[in-house]
Amino acid sequence: MKHLTGISDLSDSDIRALLDQGHDYADALDRGDFRSDRLKGRVIVNMFLENSTRTRTSFEMAALRLSASLINWDAETSSLKKGESFSDTVRTLGAMHPDALVIRSAEYEAPHAVARIVECPVINAGDSWREHPTQALLDTLTLERHYKTRGLSGLTIAICGDVSHSRVAGSGMQIFSRLGAKVRVIAPPFLMPNKFPADGIETFTSLEEGLPGCDVVMMLRNQKERMNEDLIPGDAAFHRQYGLTHERLALANKNAVVMHPAPMNRGIEISDDVADDPQRSLIFTQMKNGVPARMAVLDLLVR
Ligand code: NCD
């Protein structure tokens, strides 16, 4: 495997190897004595053309934890603003021979386009609404660590809200199904995808119908920047119908956990008290696990 453009690039054994390596890194980070020279002397370029807090910083943390250097290329101060084309910009970065390029872009299959231009491994850090494979890996790592298991069989996972614009859902549906979970999508009809990247996904149009029997409830932000028109009737109305509150969470299985890739829009898709519930919310644990999951990806791809 040279690049990571999506979960669909990975064989079952690649997925297992990445997760196992992620667990090892997570254990080492938890012990608090982590030092590794694994990528000493390597230089990685972060190329983010969309805003990011977690993904960009955790790729940087992952690179530094492995002793690589990392350049945060900045779109705002780049020559894209002088009219340079995207492909010339990528050619320029490629000409400097980085050891890996991490790309986030709103353009469909931008990682594929970059991989055709540069010689180094290309890692997808979020491609349009299509795939966000490192988020799916960190979400799976979080669930395996929470349930102290390898694989997700026996779990029913509901992905809820704006699924049609979500690359997190696009990658999550694939990895969760491949690891043996039952996957449900709960979305209003106007945010329900018309096709799915995995077989056997069950669909529901209300939380009341979809949550009973679920072990994991993953909420998503309304990604208005990807909507061509204003599909959402209003934030308050959305919360009343599709917001995750404790009352609704009680419909899921006892001890069901809550996930969210964040950024959260509190009071819209999720209430404050659910987001901050120390017993039920894994949201900040997901953020923590972004580092070891991305360390595993860099470890595998960067030589
Ligand atoms: C998401 C993204 O950018 O795809 N966040 C993330 O990477 N953790 C989800 C979102 O923007 O809503």
TrEMBL record:
Pathway the protein contributes to: Pyrimidine metabolism; UMP biosynthesis via de novo pathway; (S)-dihydroorotate from bicarbonate: step 2/3
InterPro entries, alphabetized: Asp/Orn_carbamoyltranf_P-bd, Asp/Orn_carbamoylTrfase, Asp/Orn_carbamoylTrfase_sf, Asp_carbamoyltransf, Asp_carbamoyltransf_Asp/Orn-bd
UniProt cross-references to Pfam families, sorted A to Z: OTCace, OTCace_N
Sequence positions that bind carbamoyl phosphate: R54, T55, R104, H132, Q135, A262, P263
Domain Aspartate/ornithine carbamoyltransferase carbamoyl-P binding: start-end pairs: 2-144
GO molecular function annotations of the record: amino acid binding; aspartate carbamoyltransferase activity
Keywords: Pyrimidine biosynthesis, Transferase
Any single biological process term in GO: 'de novo' pyrimidine nucleobase biosynthetic process
GO cellular component: cytosol
Domain Aspartate/ornithine carbamoyltransferase Asp/Orn-binding: start-end pairs: 154-300
Residues that hold L-aspartate according to the record: K82, R167, R221
Record's catalysed reaction(s): carbamoyl phosphate + L-aspartate = N-carbamoyl-L-aspartate + phosphate + H(+)
Subunit structure: Heterododecamer (2C3:3R2) of six catalytic PyrB chains organized as two trimers (C3), and six regulatory PyrI chains organized as three dimers (R2).
Role of this protein: Catalyzes the condensation of carbamoyl phosphate and aspartate to form carbamoyl aspartate and inorganic phosphate, the committed step in the de novo pyrimidine nucleotide biosynthesis pathway.
Similarity field: Belongs to the aspartate/ornithine carbamoyltransferase superfamily. ATCase family.
PANTHER family referenced in this protein's UniProt entry, alphabetically: ASPARTATE CARBAMOYLTRANSFERASE (PTHR45753:SF6), ORNITHINE CARBAMOYLTRANSFERASE, MITOCHONDRIAL (PTHR45753)
Protein name: Aspartate carbamoyltransferase
Naturally occurring in which organism (per UniProt): Micavibrio aeruginosavorus
Protein's gene: pyrB
